[in-house]
Design goal:
- Helix 2 packs antiparallel against helix 3, helix 5 (103-116) runs antiparallel to helix 6 (119-140) and helix 6 runs antiparallel to helix 7.
- Strand 6 (367-368) and strand 7 (375-376) form a beta hairpin.
- The strands form three sheets. The protein has a five-stranded mixed sheet, covered by helices on one side.
- With 444 residues, it is α+β, with helices and mostly antiparallel strands.
- The chain has helices at 2-17, 19-38, 58-70, 78-95, 103-116, 119-140, 148-228, 233-259, 280-289, 306-326, 391-401, 434-438, and strands at 40-41, 50-51, 294-298, 333-340, 343-350, 367-368, 375-376, 405-410, 416-423.
Length: 444
């Protein structure tokens, strides 16, 4: 049984891949059935049909052969094949008595038309074919008009139309389901790729913030230690202690961030909470230890949503890191976090003039760097565009991802200003909107 079913399956696949061969086989089988049926006399209805009671005329055999041959092209020219078979069947009813079953080819052709066209066309063509052949059988046949043979023509042609329309509807339904499934699969894959890209971007921002902040502090304290090592060893030891603390903090935050990349089954990732404004004092203390005076005015720091709290902390961290790296000697910074209606505003100001009179991205050159904020775009060693950094770019992405706005640029009279407006109701799952992103460009 298994061999037989596999043989049928292979034959079916071969015929499906070769439709012309299938139609030729169907046409041959139809011709055999029509010729065999033409030898059968249905009788007067009171007894069984008698096979061999009559012999078909040569003209009828010719008509049956022509209609069967036309079925070979039923897929390529369905309407033409239906017209030819219907015309030859009508000729058989008009000229021959009793007629041979030439109408069988018309039934198959009508089914093909109904299964490959729309429903209105099926109705029009089906009614025309049914009415024409039934009328020809009733008018030109030797049997009474109400005989079962005449109504059989009407029934078989109507059945072909209905079956073809049902097959067409089912094919359309299956195609719609398949298309919907493919579209859902594409949408699911696109959503997965989008989420992966967003997560990769978020982790990249976290890594940048952690590394830029702590490595900047390590660099400053190491420079201090090297400068005072010979003359003031106690101060050098204090600077090295700050280097050790900053390195330990960097390692801890990197461990938390990298823990997000672990796969299922890996050792359990760290569960330390993400930093926020609750530990802003510790962040500011690291800058003060590095020699940057910072004044803080922060209200309602414990009432912000988690995503907004983290974004505000990272904005302050990156802004103070840039102040320490680029504001120059003697600079001071001010940090404020206030609630204004349904938003939280984060502002970081400094009065520095930059090393050698320059801030990153603000030197001559005629550009506006995304990290410098002012005209210039000259070479720098920090997070400006010319230096290849991503400081303010990352801040802007964080803020716009929540539906907020960020501006950064030089202050009138000297210094630099970073100002972020964060909605209290964070929308972390939405992509950056063009209208919002457009409002976060740097001001001149």
């Amino acid at each position: 049984m298994t061999t037989l079913s596999s043989g049928f399956a292979r034959a079916r696949r071969w015929l499906r891949d070769h439709p012309l061969a299938f139609d030729a086989t169907l046409a041959f089988c139809t011709l055999v059935v029509m010729i065999c049926s033409s030898f059968t006399d249905p009788g007067d209805g009171h007894g069984p049909p008698a096979f061999g009671a009559r012999t078909p005329e040569l003209f009828s055999v010719l008509l049956m052969t022509l209609t069967a041959a036309a079925l070979v092209l039923r897929r390529r020219r369905p309407m033409q094949v239906l017209a030819v078979t219907a015309a030859l069947a009508a000729v058989e009813y008009v000229l021959m008595d009793p007629p041979a079953p030439v109408v069988m080819s018309t039934v198959i052709a009508l089914y093909t038309v109904a299964s490959r066209t729309d429903r209105p066309t099926t109705w029009r063509v089906g009614l025309l074919t049914m009415g024409g052949l039934t009328a020809a059988a009733m008018v030109f046949g030797s049997t009474p008009w109400y005989s079962q043979e005449n109504f059989g023509v009407f029934a078989w042609t109507g059945l072909a139309s209905a079956a073809g329309d049902a097959v067409r509807s089912r094919r359309a339904f299956v195609d719609a389901i398949r298309e919907r499934a493919e579209r859902a699969e594409r949408t699911r894959e696109e959503e997965a790729r989008r989420r992966v890209a967003e997560e990769r971007l978020r982790i990249a921002r976290d890594l940048h913030d952690v590394v830029a902040h702590h490595i900047a502090l390590v660099n400053v304290q190491a420079g201090v230690a090297a400068h005072v090592m010979d003359k003031r060893p106690d101060q050098a030891k204090e600077a090295l202690a700050h280097v050790r603390d900053a390195s330990r903090s960097a390692l801890n935050e990197l461990r938390v961030t990298v823990g997000l990349l672990r796969q299922q089954g890996d050792p359990e990732a760290p569960t330390e909470p993400a930093p926020g404004l609750a530990v802003l004092g510790e962040l500011v203390a690291t800058f003060r230890n590095a020699g940057l005076p910072v004044e803080v005015a922060c209200a309602d720091r414990d009432r912000l949503p988690a995503a907004v709290d983290l974004a505000a902390y990272r904005v302050i961290q990156e802004a103070l890191t840039n102040v320490r790296k680029h504001a120059g000697a003697g600079a001071r910074a001010e940090v404020s976090v206030v609630r204004v209606g349904t938003t939280a505003e984060v502002t970081v100001l400094d009065n520095g003039r930059g090393s050698a009179g320059r801030r990153p991205g603000t030197g001559p050159g005629g550009g506006t760097g995304p990290d410098g904020g002012g005209p210039g775009g000259g070479p720098g060693d920090g997070d400006g565009q010319a230096g290849g950094g991503h400081g303010l770019v990352g801040m802007r992405e964080r803020v716009t991802a929540l539906g907020g706005a960020l501006t950064a640029g030089p202050r009138y009279g000297g210094g630099f200003r970073v100002h972020a407006i964060l909605p209290v109701e964070a929308r972390t799952g939405e992509p950056d909107r063009p209208g919002t992103a457009g409002g976060t460009g740097l001001r001149r």
